[in-house]
User: Fold this.
Amino acid sequence: FFLEAVVAIEDTRFYQHLGLDPRAIMRAAVTNLQAQKIVEGGSTITQQTAKNLYLTPERTWDRKLKEIYYALIRKVKELFLALRMELHYSKDEILEMYLNQIYFGHGAYGIQMASRTYFGKAAKDLTDSEAALLAGIIRSPGNYSPFLKPEGARNRRDVVLNRLVELGRLT
Assistant:
């Protein structure tokens, strides 16, 4: 159930695209333009995995133009690496890599550690509600931590559960 929850909330078309999702990129661009700030990303699970595995989290402290230039270069590298990953790994392998290295907050990297940190049990023993909560944390571990912001965590969990209902994966 956890895998379905993550795909539903992070990258609904994960099993249909080849590492890039032009619809998600366009949707994020429109949303961000309307908000006049970055409020949504269009990266796929494959792109996020490529970025986390192969690119350093380098940031420039120089001028804005240099930051924009390096951000574009990093995005191109991320896209190229995502396409290569799609050629060399199955979707399930990419999803496993992603879930084993992402940060869930409170020092927990990967789903097993997150499950133990938040619920004191193995990931295979999570209830649907617990799995949805962990899937929701991925977007922003600091904002959706059940330890620090329980109401925010519950609200995000409900967003994940509602998304699963919308997709017909949960009644």
